[in-house]
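Risk register update: the risk of archive-format incompatibility is retired. Evidence:
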Amino acid sequence: RFTIAKECGLPANVKQIYLQANEADIEVNLSSPTGYPMRMLKSSPSLSSNTKPNCEALGYLLDRNGQCAYHQAWNSAGVDEKGRKLPIREKMCICYHFMKYNTYTCGQNVYRLKDTTTVLPNGQFYIPSAEHIFNDYRYSTEHEILLPSPKQLAPEETSRNGTGGKEGSGSLSSSGTAKDDPTLVTLS
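Archived output:
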């Protein structure tokens, strides 16, 4: 649940993707060059990418011989009629895609995140603070979920993203609609 908190460093649009997930959107795959299974959302951009390997520059997942399984997939990938590499599904450049927030790893219950917050009038999910999530764990009983209160949904509260403005400089207009607010990203 803290993945979607305002204070979490994930981009706001990725938080909305997690909140919109359904159970059918989750898969376990072997796309990691380490060979270990990963549970992630099927919509992860890393699952159909043709990014040139970045392992040497970033130095994350090279084996003892300085190799990466993604290199092999990249080298054996076909090209289209314009000579561009085709998307690679069997492996991903984990170094690059983790850095770019393009790999949506998750738990098996990620689809239940939407039950822990409120849908705003613009159709986006309200992004709760870490404090709200923590207090829900502390004070909720009988498996109930403490949803954000109307006070928390007030424009002055939803315009703050909990990152000191580093994630974005958006604000809500006086009508209470989203206007470049990083907690209220509209997905296209």
